[in-house]
Amino acid sequence: MSSTQQQRQLQLKIKYLKLKRINELNNNLRNELGRDRITASNACLNLIDYIQTTKDYSLPEIWGYPQPNSNHFIINRNMLSLQQRNNNDSSNGCCTIM
């Protein structure tokens, strides 16, 4: 092949790669355009509704404080300590460092 044919093929490959990149970007933009969008005020209203309907004791102003013996973290800790006793593990933590 002559050098002019090689240059022409190289230019065609470069153009093909540019076209491929543009098509990918175009598809990404189409996907973004197809996403559902809501206004910021609607998002805030959804967040307020979620906070008011989902119990979260880290917001005691709304939900108050949890009842004694209702902390699920303590229950999980007790189960973990039972497992550690069964495994004859002498560490007091929840993790093992290797």
What does this structure look like?
The chain is about 65% helix and about 0% strand. The protein is mostly helical. The longest helix has about 30 residues, at about 5-35.
Summarize this, please?
This protein has helices spanning 3-34, 40-53, 60-63, 72-86. It is mostly helical and 98 residues long.
Task: Walk me through the topology.
Layout: H1 3-34, H2 40-53, H3 60-63, H4 72-86
Shape: elongated
Helical fraction = 55-70%
Strand content: under 5%
Largest sheet: none
Number of strands: 0
Helix tally? 4
Write the H/E string, N to C: HHHH
Identify low-pLDDT runs: none
SS class? mainly alpha
Distance between the termini: 62 Å
Mean pLDDT: 81
Rg over alpha carbons: 30 Å
Main attributes of the structure:
mainly alpha; 98 residues; 0% strand; 66% helix; elongated
